[in-house]
Amino acid sequence: MYLAKTLKREDKETAVVLKFLDAQSKRDLDLMCDLVTDDIVYINEPHPPCRTIKGRDMFRDVFACSPCIWCSEANLEVLFYSRSKDHTVFTERLDQFLVNGKWLAIPICGYFKLRNGKIHLWKDYWDYSKYRTFVDKTYGPGFSLFRKNIVEQENLVSND
After folding, report:
1. Left if phi > 0, otherwise alpha if psi is -120 to 50, otherwise beta: which for 116?
2. String of DSSP letters for 100-154
3. What is the pLDDT along the chain (160 residues), one digit of tens a residue?
4. How far apart are CA 11 and CA 19, in angstroms?
């Protein structure tokens, strides 16, 4: 994972976030889950609130079918990060996934709130319309980055 800034040794919260993003690049679901609280909340804008992930069990189920795990390669490139005094780490990233021999790149801005050294809130913002246009053109209409599993069957997550 490429990092745009050098980490200061004393900034443990930023280190947790960077380790978490690196775990996604390495497709290490166990480490991802180790770095979040039991009551993790993940909000993936622009999706509706009904798609908010709540709790580590749901987090594991959803990410088990995500491109961070099933793609042949993943690279969450951190372009910029900053930490505030209220235990919040802001990131600008380029999330990249090798899908069917072609790279998909998604520009994302987001933030992570930490509690007791673990991520308890994660919120991402990205342009769904640009993503959908690229995906439809490259992979075909109806393509989803999320693979079907028990999570979709229980309507916890719909396509994309």
Report:
1. left
2. TTEEEEEEEEEEEEEETTEEEEEEEE--HHHHHHHHHHHH-TT--SSPPSHHHHT
3. 545 454 454 589 999 999 999 999 999 999 999 999 999 999 999 888 999 999 999 999 999 988 888 888 999 999 999 999 899 999 999 999 998 899 999 999 999 999 999 999 999 999 888 888 888 998 888 888 777 653 443 444 444 5
4. 12
What is the token pair recorded at 26? Answer: 């390495």
Dihedral pair phi/psi, residue 154, rounded to 5°: -90, 10
Q: What pLDDT does residue 151 have?
A: 42
Distances (CA, A) of 45 to 92, 98, 112: 14, 22, 14
Q: What are the two backbone dihedrals, phi and then psi, of residue 114, each rounded to the nearest 5 degrees?
A: -115, 150
- Does 1.10.357.10 match the CATH number of domain 12-142? no
Q: Fill in the DSSP letter of residue 50.
A: G
How many other C-beta atoms lie within 10 A of the C-beta of residue 80? 12
* C-alpha–C-alpha distance, residues 80 and 21, integer Å: 13
Domain residue limits, the chain: 12-142
